[in-house]
């Protein structure tokens, strides 16, 4: 199989599983109009590709080496994700009306960064998967592999946001409310998981 396609399928396996990025993109796609949906997608794609590249070249080893950095990321990430989860679960359907949802680009960038980068476990897992490929590739093969992974990220997030946005006009307020509750619940699950990881790491290092 060509190296580019190997990277593409590895990138899909890395991006496609339901996670905080996908929840953020889905919720944005039902909350804002198509120009902003595409902007959100491109912002998430940028951070996703940057994280995938970092994982590919072994940033997980840095996270493992500097425990203070892992603790900082776990604590900050868990607080932010829990906050987002509670906001989604408690939000009313009218609060996500496309006419009213107009979060600034700066806020969107910050949120996309938090849901992508402030999860040390995702970085380490990504390093294990993409780093495994890196160890089997030559220096010349690394670039086409990551080009394939970047193409997968672009295809996945633009496709996901476009499909959800296309059908969002058919959603009633109750449907949007249900999407918010599901999205928020997933966010809360990740937030609690990060918080547990933080306290576990903290306890281990204090003993």
What is the β-strand count? 0
Shape annotation: flat
Percent in strands: under 5%
Order of helices and strands: HHHHHHHHH
N-C termini distance: 49 Å
- Using only C-alpha atoms, the radius of gyration works out to 18 Å
Which regions contain 5 or more consecutive residues with pLDDT less than 50?
Answer: none
The total count of helices amounts to: 9
Structural class: mainly alpha
Integer tally of domains: 1
What is the mean predicted local confidence, pLDDT?
A: 80
Query: Major sheet: size, sense and barrel closure?
Result: none
Helix content: over 70%
Structural overview:
The protein is mainly α and 207 residues long. It has one domain. 84% of the residues lie in helices and 0% in strands. It contains 9 helices and no strands. α2 packs parallel to α8 and α2 runs antiparallel to α9. The termini are far apart.
